[in-house]
Amino acid sequence: MLEFWEGVELQKMANYPNGRTIRMAVICCSSDIPAARKLCGHISSLAACHRCYKIASCNNEEEERPNFGGFDDINEWFIQRDLEELRREALAWCRCNSKEERNKHVSSNHVRWTELLRLPYFNPIRHCVIDPMHNLFLGIAHWIVKRLWIDRGKISKEQLEIMQIRANNIKMPADLGRVPNKIATDEGFSGFTADQWKTFILVYATPLMWDLLSRSDREILANFVRACTLLIYRIIDNNMLNEAHDRLLKVGQLIEEHYGQQLITSNIHLSLHITECCRDYGPLYAFWCYSFERMNGILGKTL
């Protein structure tokens, strides 16, 4: 029975004949970034982080998108946002008299009203989690391999074919995930699903790519693979979470050092908050969207 959360009584949902009261609460909003931001009343992830005080910046006017680079002053912005301040700004958004005024308010304060704030216990900062499936595997893994290495000529078509041959020679138990069998198709990694990206990073990436990458890119790969390996354990402790966070931070620092600040995406920044979500909700298996996506697939086939 859930009676309280953080000292606040939750919303009553049903009374059973035996006198028991069942209470339920919304305490974890897990989805892709745009949906989670809209649900919890936050501005786009391209503009600012919803968990800390990091704001995106542009190095010059010609850049298409702002970036989240700059780690030298991390102690100044890597601080959890103030919940009471967020609630005040959300209420102020409600008092705006026009759409233009509301848009201006959101641009300045990075928050808008959400009906979930009517729940007295709801925390749109901690309850809006970073989904590891979208962030780590469909986001960062895909972006590093495709945008950072293939599109920039670090990995050629011939090397993709070498990787495919190596992958075909690896025999892996079926319960570890789908085998990535389209590495050399089209421009590379054609149609990879989130599950295939997870399997590729955790099992295939190092033996397939290690000797094909430069020293700096090996460092990026090694730190990212190690972080993902630590985070997918079913039992995880604080030491593992601390190391995973340090590794993800190192990935961002290495990308900024070797490729430039403009390539630090919102996904790379948001990955620094995944260990916070683990401390709130447990291992990644407890809140990532894989099970939800699989259920969608099952329902889609039956309808």
Tally of strands: 4
| Amino-to-carboxy terminus distance | 35 Å
**How many H/I helical runs?**
12
Structural class assignment: mainly alpha
- Mind telling me the C-alpha Rg? 21 Å
Largest sheet: 2 strands, antiparallel
**Mean pLDDT across every amino acid position:** 87
Q: Which residue ranges are poorly predicted, with pLDDT under 50 across at least 5 consecutive positions? A: 1-14
Fraction of residues in helix: 40-55%
Fraction of residues in β-strands: under 5%
The strand order across the widest sheet is 1-2
* Shape verdict: globular
**Strand/helix succession:** EEEEHHHHHHHHHHHH
Mind explaining what this structure looks like?
The protein has 303 residues and is mainly alpha-helical. It contains twelve helices and four strands, in the order E-E-E-E-H-H-H-H-H-H-H-H-H-H-H-H. The protein has a two-stranded antiparallel sheet. Strands 3-4 form a two-stranded antiparallel sheet. Strand 1 and strand 2 (8-9) form a beta hairpin. Helix 3 (83-94) packs antiparallel against helix 4 and helix 9 (238-259) packs antiparallel against helix 11. The radius of gyration is 21 Å and the shape is globular.
